Amino acid sequence: MAWRLISGSVALGMALAAVAQAGPADLAPHRAVYSMGLASSKSGSGIAAASGTMSYQFDDSCDGWVVENRIAINYAYTEGGQVVSTTDFITWESKDGLHYKFRLRNTRDGQVTEDIEGTADLKGKGQGGVARFLRPEPMTMALPKGTLFPTEHTVRLIDTALAGGHSFWRVVFDGSGTEGPYEVNAVIGKQSQALPAKAVNPLLGSPSWPMRLAFFPVATIDALPNFEMGLAYHPNGVAREIMQTFKNFSLLGRLESLESLPRRSC
């Protein structure tokens, strides 16, 4: 769940940067590495400190978008002891936003705690579909009308920001758990000024929007989100900073390195 940018969050998908103009989002293939640290912890959470890294790669496979996301966090607890938690999440999404493949593996101190794999398909734009899990056990899941996969959600979210919108709500399925899709409610803040392109990585030389995304499981009626994500999104899909807020603590990811990946001639 913590990977979602990204979803992709996650999903989190994620044009070399240019000044934002109204029009369709042009996502840039790129590789980013973030340093992760504990931003806040509520009383009783048991977490004293947290540190680690998150790597995120968004690439063009001609017939779709491939996202490779790896998170490794070392948690230190108030009562003593430490645990290293890792998440490896790889997805492929067709460019028409109708087909999706996913594979996730979570480990705790090197022991696998979760292993998920499957595919999902939508009947058409704005329609429902079905997700088919191969792991942890074979099962199918209906996806409601209007469901989006992560990269399509990112494109729609940025398009809304480019058009001057301030909120965006959709149902998103990313395959990061067997609990089903999420209702994702996004609030879009005021666009920032572009930094001088010569002073920063070209991928960051455009204006960005602060955004806050709240994730509500479709399968429950809980009034509070399962978790939230704050990030600064550029029109090319690059996130400069990430804040992941869970029920008892939050993690802050600061961009450490960023490189452009080549666009394929398909």
Give a quick summary of the entry:
This protein is mostly beta strands and 266 residues long. The chain is built from 1 helix and 15 strands. The chain has one helix at residues 150-162; strands at residues 7-11, 30-41, 47-60, 64-77, 82-94, 99-108, 111-122, 129-135, 139-143, 167-172, 182-188, 209-217, 227-233, 239-245, 249-260.
| Low-pLDDT residue spans | 1-23
Q: What is the ordering of alpha helices and beta strands?
A: EEEEEEEEEHEEEEEE
| Main structural class | mainly beta
Q: Kindly report the average pLDDT value.
A: 87
Largest sheet: 14 strands, antiparallel
- How far the N terminus sits from the C terminus, by CA atoms, comes to 32 Å
Number of strands: 15
Looking across the biggest beta sheet, what order are the strands in? 9-8-7-6-5-4-3-2-15-14-13-12-11-10
Number of helices: 1
Shape: globular
Radius of gyration: 18 Å
Measured as a percent range, the helix fraction is under 10%
Assess the beta-strand content as a share of residues.
Answer: over 45%
